[in-house]
Amino acid sequence: MSHTEDLTRYIANFVDELAKSGLxxxxxxxxSRSTPLAMTFREHPEIKEWVILDERSAAFxxxxxxxxxxxPVALVCSSGTAAANYYPAIVEAHxxxxxxxxxxxxxxxxxxxxxxxxxxxxxxxxxxxxxxFHEMALPKSTAEMLNYARIRAARAVxxxxxxxxxxxxxxxxxxxxxIPDFTLKDLWGxxxxxxxxxxxxxxxxxxxxxxxxxxxRLASLQKGLFVCGPQMDQDLAEAVTLLAENxxxxxxADPLSLIRTGSHSTGNIIEGYDSFLRNEKIxxxxxxxxxxxxxxxxxxxxxxxxxxxNQTALQFVVEQxxxxxxxxxxxxxxxxxxxxxxxxxxxxxxxxxSSSDNDWLTTWKNFNSIAxxxxxxxSVGSLTEGEAVKxxxxxxxxxxxxxxxxxxxxRDVDTFLMAGSKKLTLLANRGANGIDGIISxxxxxxxxxNPVTLLLGDLSFFHDMNGLLAAKHxxxxxxxxxxxxNGGGIFSFxxxxxxxxxxxxxxxxxxxxxxxxxxxxxxxxYHNPTDSSELKEMxxxxxxxxxxxxxxxxxxxxxxxHWHKELWTAIEEDILKLVVQ
Length: 581
Description:
Layout: H1 3-20, E1 25-28, H2 35-43, E2 48-51, H3 55-69, E3 73-77, H4 81-84, H5 87-96, E4 100-106, E5 133-135, H6 143-161, E6 168-173, H7 208-219, E7 224-228, H8 236-247, E8 251-253, E9 269-270, H9 273-276, H10 280-285, E10 290-294, H11 301-308, E11 314-319, E12 333-336, H12 339-349, H13 358-375, H14 385-395, E13 400-404, H15 408-416, E14 424-428, H16 438-446, E15 452-457, H17 458-463, H18 468-474, E16 478-484, H19 500-508, H20 515-521, E17 525-527, H21 532-542, E18 548-554, H22 557-579
Parallel strand pairs: 1-2, 1-3, 3-4, 4-6, 5-6, 7-8, 7-10, 8-9, 10-11, 11-12, 13-14, 13-15, 15-16, 16-18, 17-18
Helix pairs in contact: 1-2, 1-6, 3-5, 3-16, 7-12, 8-12, 13-22, 14-15, 14-21
């Protein structure tokens, strides 16, 4: 057979097996060496291709789409630094457990390490940040090699999804000519509808004897605490809230836990904990006997202090499969089990509720009510960052996706998103906590067709402005709220703020950029409210628009710092009146 037929059938079988294994979307960045993959993906009738020019943006776009759909997304790029530009998103996918399949084209072996253009060492280039790496064999169309291509495609999907999901990397060496021949008969191989290779995974469940033993241990303890950090299991909310109500245990619910909002009961949810755990006396007053945490570590730094100060409390971390996400270093018991089954099994054990301390739950609820009284109160004067986030959480549509940037954005959402029946899917790139690729990630989530609102700061917006091209190119519907405090607002809350000589140059880093011109360049509508009522009107109007809608709220960093501190002080003072009684 000719080289072209070898190439065509080999790649066609690989791509077809990805589709049979459940892959529906591929993000392609243009390049010559990746031609066989790019053209074949576009030819396949069951895979949707998205063409994103910048590889860094493309990888984050795929990350957002994979987060939104909970399905693996493939990335295709050419050789050389194109593949290197995937690195930040690969790191984030690894840390936040998102299934990506990076398919990098490469020079054939004879053109490596000889000074050929666009030839860098791509072997295991993502290191330990991918779950697996495989250097694909040179294309051949023998039955044995076509089976090999299918097996490798199926394995890539399985490895990306199995256990803790994450990225995998396959490197494809291609010799020229690179153009496939799609006129070949039986292009996609034998017309079988079933995958060539299948895996059957089951949910992890602990033995009944262990559940009963754990329940008996906790029965003698009066002050329990459930903590729900960032996680993506939609079914956990119902299970953990039911258990908490049965046991009389408060739930500290991170905004990314998918627990704060929804149709489940929210009676035991404590959403204002970050605002009052900032105070050392309050933390000491709320000393727990045990803590059971689901998901990753919460966003709240105040909670981190709280955990550090309670090393003697029994602490459990429930993980779906494996992992050691406990940065404090406290003595911890890791429970590797399906969290929903774990909650239902503990509920069935049924020996805790009679010994729970009702005063404990009441205290948490009272403190939370005080915090909420201050947090929901409207601001007087200029439009603050917190007020902007409050307005957004109030009007964001039900059954929509809320993608949140890092730094101050996620912290303000942590503070001001109140528990309620509105069904929201909250997403954020909290694996590595970077500000890069946030626009692209939000647009990737929007590519699923679900309404998306993206909240981020001006530095994050600037860092990924070229990601806006996807909104224009594919007419994606997204509302973006940019909080522009002209620089790195979060640093005002850190010790660096007090070093005036260096602060503005190294940390404040004002941009002094007119974003309106960039937004209009990408075909978006631009809005700049001056007060809360205007912001609310513009947000509501944006949800009726098609395409890209950007609302910019301009604030002052120093004013924002004082406003937040005054709010936290007022909450602490009111709660301390109860603590000292």
